[in-house]
Amino acid sequence: MSRLLHAMLRAGGGKGSYGLSNISFGSRVASVADFASQDIEINDYGRFVYLAQNGTTDAVHRHLMSTWWNMSTCSASLNDYYDISGTISIFGAFHIPDGGEQLFAAQSNTIDRFTMPTAYLPSTASHDSGQTLTLNGSGAASGLVMSPDKTVAIVADDILDKIHRYTMSTGGDLTIGSYDSGGDITISGATNFNGLAGSPDGKHLIAHALASGTTPTLYHIEMTTPWDTGTGTVTESLDTTLLPTHQPITIRGLKYHKDGGSIYFIGVETGTTYIYQYYL
Fold first, then answer.
1. pTM (predicted TM-score)
2. Which domain, by its residues, includes 258?
3. I need a labelling partner for 196 at 20 to 30 A (CA). Which of 218, 229, 239, 245 fits?
4. Tell me, what CATH number does 231's domain have?
């Protein structure tokens, strides 16, 4: 396969490994994200890029990619917007399930559910009264992924330095969310978790944290039982200062391509905030 064809397949949704061993640089774009951008989400067919903004106004921003899943084609123009500050005061992470009819947003130690009557359009969102899940302990959510049926929520905690699992017998009903005490993942020496991505089949996670409290690192976690973090183990790690081509000093938010061909994240490099796409 030619390098050009390989690159085209990756940009448009080529099958990948979900792992880090073959990571290579794809693209980066400035003027879309800024330092207030805390998390990134991409809808299930790769058209819309959403950013969690934690600044003067906590908000969800939506941008368009003219080529599906290809971050280099993301427009800097704001396509849609939802001011979430009336409900969320410290906006750290969020998730938009397949279908785009709901939005789950995490602040300091809670997750709240919102409904979007017009799918994928944040400006139509409203808070579902009572749909709040209080997280275990004194932690703070800095990454959030959910199973496609919304019965499992996995949260990266940047205070307790763990990855937690919550279950819901009825998908998406936060009022019956339950902390799974056997589902914690603790990575030896890793602190300050900031970003979490999950594969659609529930077998892979990528988390960003500081190794030994200082070195920004990506961790690839594999679960032998899908969506059961109690079966998860770290199989790979990568010092992000060794990333090919570009080495952002700060990473916030992570998102997998649905087929594992890419990883997307917000990063800061030489004082400028970018959204990066790396092929896997």
1. 0.92
2. 3-279
3. 245
4. 2.120.10.30
